[in-house]
Amino acid sequence: MNALREKARELLATKTVQVVIGYAPGSGGAARALFVREAAQAGELVFDETCLQNLAAYLMKPEVRRLGRAALVARPATLRTILQLAAENQLAESSLLALVPGADGVLSLSTFSAIEAHVAAQDNDLSAAEKSELEKFAAMGLDERREFWQEQFSRCLKCYACRAACPLCYCTRCTVECNQPQWIPVPAHDLGNLEWNVMRAMHLAGRCTNCGDCSRACPVGIPLYLLNQKLCSDVLSSFNQRSGMAARADHSLSTFKPDDPEDFIR
Amino acid sequence: METEKRSIQREALAKLIEQWCREGKRVLAPRKSGDKVDFDRVTSLSEVSFDHVQTVQSPKSAVFPRVEELFSFRSADGQVEVRDRELDILPETVVFGLRPCDAAAFAALEAIFNWDAPDRLFTARRARTTLVAVACSRADEYCFCTSVGGGPGAVAGSDILLTDLGQGEFLAEIASAKGREMLQAADSLFGPALDADKESRLAKPAAVFAADAVAAVLAGLFADTAFWEEQSRRCVGCGACAYVCPTCACFDIQDEGGASGKRLRCWDSCGFGLFTLHTSGHNPRPLQSQRWRQRLMHKFSYMPERQGVLGCVGCGRCSRGCPVDMNILEHLRAIAEARP
To answer: What is the domain count for chain A?
Structure first.
């Protein structure tokens, strides 16, 4: 933690970055995002197991971008998110560096290739617990699965906390806000909730980097991560592509390849 | 009306809920599901949670559902037929187990919905809704009712307020004509008046700021752009705070259907980028900092000034529900201490 604070101080003092986006103690024993703009404030930074939010979401926020070059305290999923955003042409390499706190101090990754090398060496697979939960979900029959999601989505308030927390939901105008024609019904009724959540899951298929922030953000506790993990594992098994591994990558679901495994495309 | 004090045993409370159900009333109460407690329709006392601090959502959907049909329409041969909602089919509702802060919040909703022209549907639902609150024996770090004129045992807003006195006995304070009507319909279930020490049973949330001081500072804080940017930087602009709030009343109008269909009222939030976006493309509040300022100004400055009621009851739901920990109590404390 001291190494992280020291690094933040140095980066700000030397004007290498204008803001360090990290974590500070928050309410209820949790951590929250902190935007450190003065070297003197770096002592407020913390990094421990309560630091869960994927701070890459802030890289897409205009108010944060305006602050200047950012150093981002990054967890494993945050690094994948940076690469995925880069692959989608949303981040300039010069706009940020990633700070990875570890046992032997803090790593400063200032290029996409350095982030790629670090990500390649870390475990990017679902955890054993995540895999077993996904298997349980996949083993449900169609009717059971429909019932499960209908019950879950019936509680959706359409507060869009999932979208707001997701770093990959960066559209300035979301499909649900397009009303000529209205693709997705706005009301939080059964159809509106089903279409909204399925649409969001489809738009994240092969893009989601499994940070889990959509589920953590949901005030009514809908396990949205299950949808995203399922779709990403399907993309992995169908196209052998895992999101967030490379700063230059074609998106599996929007790239035509003559050897596409789906024969209906030809 | 003077508050009448009675008592009621837990077993009698169970019978009271069953009686309401037999009378065809919709009973909404806090119910535990997974690790969350939220209002749901119940038919027995055993389904009701008592040991939680606060529910995720507020009970406002009893009078302001998240989606509500305002009217239906049909057009044919150049004629448009509009059919209003039938009000007499709206359910008689008892909200049971809401907190005193939640009960107080209905006054803020009434101030908004009946500001100039009374809102027909809201008024009809409100008239059919009775509030049987349960006083708070516990508070958490997000609670601040005592800073906004309320209290863990405050009677204002409730038709009946229950306070758990231990050993399965509750003090019942009958605080309105509706409460008295409810008592009269089940008088035998209530015991004699109690001279109980209610205060010792109540949570003691500290008063952190004075609401009128916040309003006074806010009046001069509008143009302090740097302050609002600093305050709102980690806000991601979702609607979780507004949707769990017991007093937030913004709504959006949506038409569904073509030549025939219905007009719906849906919850909306000042946190969204579409908030106050004009048809021209201009938005007077294009930044999240301006929308966050609007949220606080509306609740703590505009509402007291225009409607004589605060737009906040200190329930703390917005802070608990916020995905990025925009703890409103901290913001209010910072505002109270700001000297522009």
So the answer is: 2
- Tokens found for residue B265: 């009222």
Domain range for B257 is 211-337
Question: In whole angstroms, what is the distance from residue B91 CA to residue A153 CA?
Answer: 24
pLDDT (0 to 100) of residue A213: 97
Pick among A157, A168, A170, A183 to test the B interface (most B CBs inside 10 A): A157
Q: In this predicted structure, what is the pLDDT of residue A203?
A: 95
Cα atoms in the 13 Å half-sphere on the side-chain side of A4: 23
Both A63 and A96 in one domain: the answer is: yes
Q: Which of B228, B234, B277, B292 to mutate to test the interface with A (most CBs of A within 10 A)?
A: B234
**Residue numbers in A near B246 (CB within 8 A):** none
What's the pLDDT at A266? Answer: 57
Tens digits of residue pLDDT in B86-116: 998 999 999 999 999 999 999 999 999 999 8
DSSP B174: E
Same domain, B156 and B51: yes
ipTM reported for the complex, 2 dp: 0.94
Alpha carbons A164 and A212: distance in angstroms, whole number:
13
Contact state of A186 with B266 under an 8 Å Cβ cutoff: yes
Interface of B with A in 53-112 (CB under 8 A): 56-57, 66-67
Q: What is the pLDDT of residues A230-260, one digit of tens each?
A: 999 999 998 889 999 999 998 888 888 787 7
Say whether both A133 and A110 belong to one domain. no
Would you say residue A220 lies in a domain?
Answer: yes
- Closest-CA distance of chain A to residue B312, Å: 19
Q: Which two tokens stand for residue A63?
A: 């108010």
Is the same domain home to A106 and A155? Answer: no
CA atoms within 13 A on the CB side of A222: 25
Name the domain boundary from B140, B170, B201: B201
Domain extent, residue A56, equals 2-121
Q: Note the pLDDT tens digit of each residue in B241-274.
A: 999 999 999 999 999 998 999 999 999 999 999 9
Assess contact for B84 and B72: CB atoms under 8 A.
Answer: no
Q: What is the pLDDT of residue A258?
A: 80
Of all helices (H) and strands (E), which one includes residue B188?
none
Q: How far is B266 from chain A (nearest CA, A)?
A: 6
